[in-house]
Amino acid sequence: MARLQHSGEVRLPGRLHDAEDAEGQAGGLRGPDAPRSRRLALTSLRSLVAAALVLAGWTPAAAHSLLLASSPAANAVLTASPPYVALRFNNRIEKRLSRVRLVDERGTVAAAPTGRADDEVAESLLAVVPPLAPGVWRVEWQVFSTDGHVVTGSYQFRLAP
User: Which residue in 61, 114, 121 sits closest to 84, CA to CA?
Assistant: First the structure.
């Protein structure tokens, strides 16, 4: 049986690729020895992606739509049936994926609002409603935020002619 003998001192490499052709083996991608053009290209790519995200309005934690104002107002006492329900949010909503409905104090859903009177303002939802009977009414809304989340809410008002 043959024995292997090493002539001289055995040295382990200080880096994974520490031979004469190390750059060819590793492709020159890592470490301080990476070619300047490749480092510049990676830095440029990172900067371009960051700029695109900023210009697109992306934020790490985009806020959901919050109801800022409503008409009729929450807990309002009205003497006449409101002609419409208007909801204003803090950011854009997808109107065709959003809805408003009116529910009386017995839980009966009134006729659905007949249409949207205002498609101009991206943060508002305006629905024409049928004449309402006296009593407590709950406005229930569901909107699809442009951040991709469905947000729901409700409030009440009283109709006492």
Answer: 114
d(CA 35, CA 28): 6
Which one is predicted more confidently, 29 or 134? 134
What are φ and ψ of residue 16, in 5° steps? Answer: -60, -45
Cis, bond preceding 35 (omega within 30 deg of 0) = no
Largest Cα span, the chain? 111
Alpha carbon distance 100, 87 (integer Å): 9
> Residue ranges per domain, the chain?
22-55, 67-159
- CATH number for the domain running over 67-159: 2.60.40.1220
Residue 64 confidence (pLDDT): 79
